[in-house]
UniProtKB/TrEMBL annotation, chains A, B, C, D:
Name of this chain's protein: Acyl-CoA dehydrogenase
Oligomeric and partner information: Homodimer.
Cofactor entry: FAD
Native organism: Amycolatopsis acididurans
Acyl-CoA dehydrogenase/oxidase C-terminal domain span: 247-396
């Protein structure tokens, strides 16, 4: 259980930290300005492509992806780098081509895709030329129970025909989002974990309609393609678009979730660190009743609690990364669920205090805190609500004593 | 300490509940639709004026205002009515001409305005023909210490000249907002509580620029005029626009805050009740793993806790209203602070659970929960952050033992 | 919903407050001293009987019992008096003959007892001459589900024969405890709510063994007779000792619990008030780093939170009392459960902060805070764990929407 | 940052785990029985000495002490062993001669003692032949500010004369406690951190009176010598009893606290693990309403939360141990404070839930949970209240941004 940074991590950290200072932080106000001036309301501002080019030039690229297709880092090597990118969550992950949901989709294609699928979709994703979406959640059922998913994927000759409605499909409003991985039922009569399959649907396929952007606490998240409601009305794709075999959908989803969760958690810690820094700076810089706000006992309590909580959380994320590297995702199941449960609540709490320390400004577009909060809040649902994970974790704990 | 509804309250409750069912709830989807189709991005949809006409016809009008100018209700009479309007917070309060910040501004004009000021500004506000703003918070200082407010109001012959910058000026983006009550310093050398004054500034006065809408967790709150950043650059108004005397600003602000706080709290309880109802309906209507979500122990725990907390909170709000009626705002100081502290945290907690019970939809524009949450969150700052009120309350408690 | 004190309440409050100052508070150190010097380790010190005589002389007697047998107060009249007694929980309730479990037992005898039962047991209890116990909880089953109770009460000719084991039988270690009301099964085959009966068992009946005192966080609570483990081994009592009819046990228990819960809650608020007073006095009287501890922001936060929470809780208890008086215990079911859930957590929190404010002394026998905490902690189990009450309350809430 | 167990740790863990199973757990009921039968109310039962002999035979001895005098383990090696001993906190630490306050006192003597002091006091402590006490906290001042400590230590010829009153002096009621390390002021006029000194006072020195045992939530902790109130009335000891130099008291206390805190935290995690195990076993073994309590969602939530919190906490304790080993106590300051803050609250929460899961029994002497809770609660004061540590930690965090 060695969490020390190895030589490669140290080197990449150095390059990345330098890049944050020289490019990412200075780009933040530019990004905000360009957002206001966009013509397409769902596209990323041009600065994003510039940052991607700069990052790639420095070798800061595809860190998330192990193996030959990506940077080949272990989870433990990636963790501290992902944390750093979390400090500027709108710019740094995408600049390094490490933004969700592309990351998960690339993992799926790298692990399960055919050569043809990889060539057609993985490669342009790896090159940051297109973006992608993962269509699982449905508006009409409690998707936390995967068996509820009702979109149908029916074989019809050499094709599959897809019917259903999905929502909160992140990134799908962006016209650069060229490919959807869709989860649906190929066999409603199979045993529960073999009913689902995943299939590739290119944007523009007839019958696929991106209806509208769903909001998250008022944010449309348009700079990274929003969260779409999407309708599949007799959408027909060639049979070879199926990923792996019929009935593999649940297993593929599981394989995808482990890394996805840990990436979210790593970045969230970066968010928390930035919030603490902002809370310190703000309360040192403003005074009430003749003394800096930072002198107040209650504010110091927030800062101390934040530090104590972050330190614990980071170590658990690192341990989880190390376990995934050494015993695999299945062996790290309890830890993956644990960080999934612990991270949003911890970081939400810290952001809430940082917002409070900023006064009304903390709620506004002038500071990133409120938007960070909303984004973190979604993690209590994403990949299943906390409550489902807690129940599953508890049952595993109880099983030892039966 | 009698909180029972008297005959007038009962009668008005009956009329109001009928109006909610027949007009307000059915108007909610219409309102959302019209919002999408507005030409002016900061105006209320036309349904609002229709609802106002209907409400006024039924005598559901200006409940908030005691005395001859308003409905003449006591706080205790108004409390249960305000709670009901809180169930549809975007429509019901404005329909009854009981929406902030007009309510506070009308109170100030009724209490402190000259006959001329009342004729010119109070009357059209009472008639719901114009709207108004209250300009106190400043972006560059911690406004929780009123002494920090730095906007200057300088006497110059028969005029006052105003210079400063304000933000989070609710309602000011709305072109119907015709009058600003501005708080600023007339005498920086006076003793702390006599430095401030309040003055009337009509929209359109040269030098007054409404610069932009501030957001609250991504919401621009455009349907009720948003929250503006406003600049006063050598804004000149006649000396008779001053409200009361030079140096009275702090006292006027205090007089305004008591009722404002209790109105917010009353409505917030309505918000909480609606959230509990939605949480119950949703969890009864969706199933996971073969049983309604409402059967889950954790969900039942949320529902029970919500009920227990609401019941306590409502009683404290009622007691506060009763105290304000019987011993005045000063005598109710501890209770006013107590509900100001307790309400947002309690209602936030309930909304958070209701959101969680709704899955991703709970974050979206399809349910009012996320927007309600953001709105309630602002109350932890509005009229001073909780931390300032807690300190003040604790010092009063300690004083008894010195 | 009028919570004002009526004339009788005001008068009794005056007398009681005077009695607290003149007799109860001065008796506290005497009580502690006499406890050390007792010969019987499970008896009350002699000061208790002196206080009882003094209280009775002043008409401060049997406040808890409505109707002809007691003081005839309503719940709403009793509530503020009970709160005052809670400030000195070891002395004031017993001095007024208002201490559990006698109170509940007297209620049961007054409501359900035969003339003979009342003459033999109720009268000496009303006179404060003997004490009593209520034997329901069992060590070997989860008693929160009353159907689990396994003590058997079998008819045999003119007698009933009782077999079983009970624990946490409050007061039973005290030799003055002369009568046990025992809950057990007369008919295991009846429908669930008709299986149980209650029966009177005098101390000294052959087969009844008081085995040992159970502790509560190290306290043996010996001054009020402790909490005994009791064995019933073929205990035979005359058939006329049965209370009401066979199968009425559950209904009697329910009738008993309503008032019992509200008395506990009323007194607990008195405990909380005393804790706040002690917290204020202590933090004003000690300094660290050159300033009184009361100046620290975190301490002020505790004090303010305590005040805000107490005010809400007290009002809910008063409303519950008022409801019990006006619509009966059944109509007040939700409120009785609500105060049962809210009170221990609220008062525990306040006591925890008061302890922390006292430093190590707060844990010790030199201040009543730690013992108060332990006593309040038991309320999260007493009459059923919070979790059972929350579930029941939530189901009633959900039922409205089914 | 490598937390893996090295070979030596693995070997010792194996031996220790075997010893727990073969000797410690079986001794628990014997210990409880012998406690009841003691003649001296403040002595350890004889089983303790037997366990010590057995442990020493196996090389399970003085793990806590680095360097030549002890087992020579690093903090990181000791951590997982200390955790295991925490599972039986009354027996395992003392069996291994690793119980506070002897541990801290041995550290002080090993680091600062003269050869004579080490020979006379350290050696018998290392051999487990005598016990010792550390006398710092005073009843009359807020000891969290060390400058408040008012016991005087005055040089008088070849002696020092000590006057003052101390309380919560752990272990001092035990007649085997032969030596006191006393903290007091040698120079009230020196700069704050140079006023204090530490001095050795043997039991039996004239003027030293052990007055009474202080309780902790009703527990007298008599099996390990209780917590005494001690008076020093012109106690005269030879000048060579001073530890190090005059004015070094504060520095010695600091040196002592680091390891003391981490030992407490390590053991507390063992306490938490045992509580989770007990919670699982109990809820699997009891049923309500026809299903095991472990099936209830709220109980599963407790279990999952407990696991998530323990995992985070343990890692932070391990990191702290590792830091102390690699950069020293000063470099681990933030982490030492962090675990001091986080541990009691986390473990308290888990114990509270485990108690609740046990019903009334959870409060009793039949399960160790309530006593564990009381013991953990004291850690929020021990070595300074959490509030002092949070403030200090926050100020260090803020300093980075000044």
């Amino acid at each position: 259980m060695d969490f020390a940074f190895d030589a490669r991590t140290e080197e990449l950290r150095g390059t990345l930290l330098e890049f944050m200072d020289s490019h990412i932080y200075p780009a933040e106000p530019v990004f905000d300005e360009q957002l206001e001036q966009r013509t397409d309301p769902w596209s990323a501002p041009p600065i994003v492509d510039e940052l991607k080019a700069e990052a790639r030039k420095r070798g800061l690229w595809n860190f998330f992806l192990p193996g030959e297709h990506g940077a080949g880092l272990t989870n433990l090597q990636y963790a501290p780098l992902a944390e750093i990118t979390g400090r500027s969550p709108h710019l740094a992950p995408i600049a390094l081509n490490c933004a969700a949901p592309d990351t998960g989709n690339m993992e799926v294609l790298a692990m399960f895709g055919t050569e043809q699928q990889r060539k057609q979709w993985l490669q342009p994703l790896l090159d940051g030329e297109i973006r992608s979406a993962f269509a699982m959640t449905e508006p009409d059922v409690a998707s936390s129970d995967a068996r509820n998913i009702s979109t149908s994927i029916k074989r019809d000759g050499d094709s599959y025909v897809i019917n259903g409605r999905k929502f909160y499909i992140t990134g799908a409003m962006n016209p650069k989002c060229q490919i959807f991985i869709v989860m649906g039922k190929t066999d409603p009569d199979a045993e529960p974990h073999r009913q689902q399959s995943q299939i590739l649907v290119p944007r523009g396929t007839p019958g696929l309609t991106v209806e509208r952007g769903m909001k998250v606490f008022g944010y449309d998240d348009s700079s990274h393609g929003g969260h779409a409601e999407v309708v599949f009305d007799n959408v027909r794709v060639p049979a070879e678009n199926l990923i792996a075999e019929e009935g593999d959908g649940f297993a593929i989803a599981q394989a995808r979730l482990g890394p996805g969760r840990i990436h979210h958690c790593m970045r969230s810690i970066g968010v928390a660190e930035r919030a603490v820094e902002m809370m310190c700076r703000r309360t040192l810089g403003r005074s009430t009743f003749g003394r800096p706000i930072a002198d107040q006992g209650v504010v110091q309590d927030w800062i101390a609690e934040s530090r104590v909580r972050i330190e614990q959380l980071r170590l658990l994320v690192l341990k989880t990364a190390w376990l995934m590297d050494t015993v695999g995702n299945r062996g790290a199941h309890t830890e993956i669920q644990s960080i999934k449960i612990a991270t949003p609540l911890t970081v939400e709490w810290i952001l809430d205090k940082a917002i409070q320390a900023h006064g009304a400004g903390g709620l506004s577009q002038d500071f990133p805190l409120a938007e960070m909060w909303a984004s973190i809040r979604t993690l209590r649902f994403a990949d299943g609500p906390d409550e489902v994970h807690k129940r599953s974790l508890a049952r595993r704990e109880l099983r030892q004593y039966k």
